[in-house]
Hints:
Elements: H1 2-5, H2 14-18, E1 36-38, E2 48-54, H3 58-72, E3 78-81, E4 89-92, E5 98-100, E6 116-118, H4 123-134, H5 152-160, H6 168-176, E7 184-186, H7 218-227, E8 238-239, E9 247-251, E10 257-264, E11 268-275, E12 280-285, E13 291-295, E14 305-310, E15 313-321, E16 329-337
The structure holds zinc ion.
Amino acid sequence: MAVTDKVCFDRVLPADMQRPLAGRVMTMAIGKTRAAFQIAKLWPNGTTLQIRFIGGTADQHNLVRQYAAQWTEHANLKFEFGRAPNSQIRVAFADDGAWSYIGKDALSIPADQPTMNFGWLDEGVILHEFGHMLGMIHEHQNPIDNPIVWNKPVVNAALGGPPNFWDQQTIDHNMYAKYDLNQINGSSLDPLSVMLYSFPASWTENGFHSEPNESLSEIDRAFAARVYPRTQMPAGPVTLPVFEGVTEAEIGQPGEEDLFVFEAKTASRYTIQTDGPTDVVMTLLREDGGLVAQDDDSGEGRNARISAELSPGSYTVQVRHYNSSSGTGRYGIRVSREHAPAG
Length: 343
Ligand SMILES: [Zn+2]
């Protein structure tokens, strides 16, 4: 039966499990749009993701390219398939089930190791794993209005046997565990989501079951477009002076993301902080797009503050409202350096 073949195991970084995003629920109030993303793992909106294959045949590569592209019709991200050694995403084809790290967790994986694996290939599994790569979680682990009542003895027997042979911990983690409300960006369960496993009614005590979802649901698409919106971006990044006071800025529309750049001329500790009444989330990236840090509320009130030892170079600061579905407002941003340059 195809059911047990379709099960995927999400790789979750252990450090991440110990450090959930504090106190934040983001509910999407856009009609029937429902799906769930992990807020802290989203890529910066507009990111170009370099994707490199590790092994696999030309046919396999073509299938992945062809189906994965559906996400970028809706999400404001670009996929570039190639051989770049610093590719953020590495796709392998080992006999190791199908799995993916979720969103930006891929950045923490050594560059010679896969961040996604396809033990089998079809449209549904490609869309599913790329959904994880975008930051989506399993719909059956969605904590909001989740109607599933598992028949655990049946599920345990099915997944503990061939072909998965999952141990109880894996089954608990991948099937029964629900995400904390404060970790996700979503609404109630979407039965048509490509992120929902397919399972029979015998796996539940209340008759809930799902068919294999082989294509993006309407809600999957709408949500990808909402989380990675194609709103007007500023004409280009604004250059931030180091030391010279506050630069005034504004999230003018829901979902807008402001970009700033600054030069770290010397190696030192730099502090980037926002002020004002707006609840912003700030992300600091290296020139190559690598994540330095992300922060929501370490500053005053709901302001963001990142303090980091930086080597000389150009850095990008990205600012968005915490509430990407309706938040707007003005804020100030400034960069300071701990030590004055010597001599
Ligand atoms: Zn999955």
